[in-house]
Design a protein that fits this description.
With 388 residues, the chain is an alpha/beta fold. The chain folds into two domains: 119 residues, NAD(P)-binding Rossmann-like Domain (Rossmann fold); 179 residues, Dihydrodipicolinate Reductase, domain 2 (2-Layer Sandwich). The chain is built from 15 helices and 16 strands. A ten-stranded mixed beta sheet has the order 1-15-14-13-12-8-11-10-9-16, with helices on one face. The protein has a six-stranded parallel beta sheet with strand order 4-3-2-5-6-7, with helices on both faces. Helix 13 packs across helix 15. It is globular and about 60 Å long.
Length: 388
């Protein structure tokens, strides 16, 4: 045992052990102290303005995402001319947001209207792909909420119909396409800010809002499973940020951990992905507590060869107000970027795609690759039963 240092002993008596130790950095703090975070100035991105106009209609109002989808198309130059749903209460709510919209008497009325170029939908998950197929066979393009497809058999028919008709089957993966921080992350990645992206890590918790969910929400056959449903957003981000054109599922698992009264529901899932552009890990769940204040603390990590990016899309817990927080670390330092004012290009780009027969807003092949990944992950997933 080393002899006690008298000077140190006297100092401790004078100052008090706790106060002294709090003032002295630990060895770990001395060696690994975090660098100061700097406020980075965001590169100015010009808004993408509408360059074209289309007439479009909405069929299926079963998920509130239809409001964001409709607004995006209108923002891009679309003119909403008709809506159809089989529940009057849904139509009444929709008309409050988009007053003056003509209510069609049937789906057929919309499909057989030659002036309508696009149909958008947020119907019940398992009904979206069959509707999209009918839409394309009537000579129109289709824009769906996610997940747009719930089985591999539906996917095969969608691909065959695209090849047969030459129409667009688009999926609004809003967690990338309609989140300013995710849009700016794409700008940084494509400008080489962190080198080549090696891996994406998506943490995607959601609030369950138990009392307001319809019956189909709890039914695997109708919502498609947790990886198919929520995970489709994350598979899209993996494909997009890594630039993968080929990809496979490494492993996947799902469980109903906390809802034994809903035997056909899944409240937890994760999956590992690999492709010719990089690797991906996704965790999705329905365990966001009510106290958070938003529907989920969605986080995205992009690991590059020369740096990394973290997105806090919807909330910075005990930190900065609002959402769209981006943290960039590279060879120059650690920086914070407020992305809340980044313009959203999807709407104008997509409307132009419908007119010009292009795929600028969304690569059709990539969208269906992301869909194939989650459908495969869902089908192959190990199912665990827990009683917690």
């Amino acid at each position: 045992m080393h002899p006690t240092n008298p000077d140190r002993r006297n100092l401790l008596k004078a100052l008090g052990t706790a106060s002294l130790l709090s003032a002295i950095p630990s060895p770990a703090e001395s060696l690994y102290a975090a660098p100061p975070m700097q406020q980075a100035e965001i590169a100015h991105l010009e808004p993408v303005l509408p360059t074209a106009s289309i007439r479009f209609a909405v069929i299926g109002l079963d998920h509130n995402h239809i409001y964001g989808i409709t607004a995006a198309v209108i923002r891009g130059g679309g003119k909403l001319v008709a809506v159809y749903a089989n529940q009057p209460a849904q139509i009444a709510d929709f008309l409050k947001q988009f007053p003056g919209t003509r209510v069609a008497a049937s789906e057929t009325e919309i499909l057989e209207d030659p002036s309508i170029q696009l149909v958008a939908s947020a119907g019940i998950n398992y009904l979206r792909a069959p509707l999209g197929i009918r839409v394309m066979r009537h000579g129109k393009d289709f824009l769906s909420d996610k997940p747009a497809i719930t089985t591999l058999e539906q996917l095969a028919e969608v691909r065959a119909t695209i090849a047969e008709t030459g129409r667009i089957f688009a999926i609004l993966f809003s967690e990338r396409l309609e989140v300013p921080a995710a849009v700016y992350a794409g700008h940084l990645v494509h400008s080489g800010a962190i080198g080549k992206v090696i891996q994406t890590v998506n943490i995607a918790p959601h609030k369950i809002n138990n009392g307001s969910r319809p019956d189909w929400f709890w039914d695997y056959d109708r919502f498609g499973g947790i990886l198919c449903d929520i995970g489709s957003h994350q598979a899209d981000q993996f494909v997009y940020y890594t630039g993968s054109t080929q990809a496979e599922v490494t492993a996947s698992q799902v469980a109903n951990v906390h809802h034994p009264d809903k035997p056909k529901f899944q409240d937890f899932g994760d999956m590992m992905l690999h492709g010719n552009g990089g690797f991906g890990y996704v965790r999705v769940d329905w365990f966001t507590p009510d106290g958070l204040g938003v529907w989920g603390d969605g986080r995205l990590f992009l690991l590059g060869t020369e740096g990394y990016i973290e997105l806090r899309k919807y909330i910075d817990v005990q930190g900065r107000p609002g959402g769209n927080h981006l943290f960039l670390v590279d060879g120059k330092g650690a920086r914070y970027i407020d992305c809340s004012q980044v313009p959203l290009p999807f709407g104008p780009q997509f409307v132009a795609d419908v007119v010009n027969r292009t795929h600028i807003a969304q690569d059709q092949t990539q969208a269906l690759l992301a869909t194939e990944l989650v459908l495969t992950a869902q089908k192959q997933a190990k199912v665990f039963k827990m009683d917690l």
